[in-house]
Design a protein that fits this description.
eight-stranded antiparallel beta sheet, D-amino Acid Aminotransferase, Chain A, domain 1, ligase, Dna Ligase, domain 1, ATP-binding, Biotin_COase_C, five-stranded parallel beta sheet, magnesium, CPAse_ATP-bd, Rossmann fold
Length: about 600
Amino acid sequence: MFRKVLVANRGEIAVRVMRACEELNVGTVAIYSEADKDSGHVRYADEAYNVGPARAADSYLDHEAVIEAARKADADAIHPGYGFLAENAEFASKVEAADGITWIGPSSEAMESLGEKTKARTIMTEADVPIVPGTTEPVTEPEEVKSFGEEHGYPIAIKAEGGGGGRGMKVVWDESEVEDQLESAKREGEAYFDNDSVYLERYLEQPRHIEVQIVADHHGNVRHLGERDCSLQRRHQKVIEEGPSAALSDELREKIGEAARRGVAAADYTNAGTVEFLVEEDPDRDGPLGPETNFYFLEVNTRIQVEHCVTEEITGIDIVKRQLRVAAGEELDFEQDDVEIDGHAMEFRINAENAAEDFAPATGGTLETYDPPGGLGVRLDDALKQGDELVTDYDSMIAKLIVWGEDREECIDRSMRALREYEIGGIPTIIPFHRLMLTDEEFVASTHTTKYLDEEMDTSRIEEAQQQWGGDTGDGSSEDEESVEREFTVEVNGKRFEVELEEHGAPAIPAGDVDVGGAQASPPQPAGGDSTDSEEFAGDGETVDAEMQGTILSVEVEEGDEVAAGDVLVVLEAMKMENDIVASRGGTVSEIAVEENQSVDMGDVLVVLE
């Protein structure tokens, strides 16, 4: 087993991995950006290293900075968690090549073959795993999309090779949309995965999203741990996950599970992963979907999933520990027949968003109240404590509530109780939305599909739930504290050291520089990294501001351009979705204040119109 593991991630998943390490008597190392210097995963780790400014590209996504932190800490393994570098085959290969450091995950070769969606489709076809009609080679020209539409019909899904979770996927409903959607999918693929290759699939209009948890070792053993139903989605983003699926018959779930095992075995895959499928829903069914139901391979997530906790609760198998043991060369300690599904579990993503405002992410705030639920069958994965400032530079998920029951009915009842107990004050969350869904007829009957939230549900019900159960969501600002907790944080050779003093009724200590062995600790900079509190613009016309925090995907205009009301000025990515920023009136572009791949905060000036 390893001596010390660096977790190349943040928040609740970093703490989750560190807890598994601690139970195996393995030391833990955190990395953090400037925005995360006071975050929970930094507090939990045995030691922590600063890897750069708030912008993810300059910190959590910086290959060399992460590996250098592992060397400084003398860590002998790196666990990527999920997101960030977890599915980056190039980074995995660099870790594999690093002397004395082990990559905790599938090999870079397997990640590349299964991460590239067209390669994955070819592997699955050879393993006799059914796939949605689509291309096995990337497409580059609109004519190829139109030809596919003529052969297979519309709608068509254009998907980025390296994409996932809805990012890099565009739906073409008819031939008139081909050019715009193809360009948009390629642009997202280039911006987020450094790969503008896309492929095509027939877009299924009434699918369920079913995924199978896989664990495989280096001794030829491949096990599946049952399925999870992730059909409740908003814009292709999972909201509530559960297992086992109430929509599948035992015969169908066995067929899907065995198909997943065949596929990953054919790819010579090791460690944990998830094989995702689309299952055709039958709106007229009376009872579970039978073994004759069509199901199709969607993709393989070559990492631990956000919702792995659901499987852990119904199998009793610690998936993260198995990741560590497999990476250390150990053989899996259970047979396929040993896997038993006990009861039912659901996971609720606790996002700092206001569901009544189109799930708009919070732009700041303090956890003035944080009182999570407890009791039998209730699990909380988080990295929070009361008084924490909300970090808005990354994903809006702040915690996960996982609830187990002897059956689905008890799980729903217990989930409702746990969500009622869960008190979070100072920021908005989607807890009211979750409470609403547990009373929703379609969800309770498990007849919903991935389209339900976006196309069928009455959004006024979400607004009513937010009003009824929203509670204190704060105003996005923090008040001065009467007591002073004096926390001195210094870094020596990049390693974090802390000295803490607490005094009530004392004035704040002036934020001067602290010199320790040649290293300096200075007052924290704004979360945007290089941004300043104010900025002057030469243009004296109307400013077009960012409506939310995000990243600039593209700038569609140039200085001097004449634009009309409704013209797209900038494309802003926020929460894995493209948002067109349009002109509210006509005018001339006098100044452009942003550039591609730049991070912006809510209220930042994007364009000036005269």
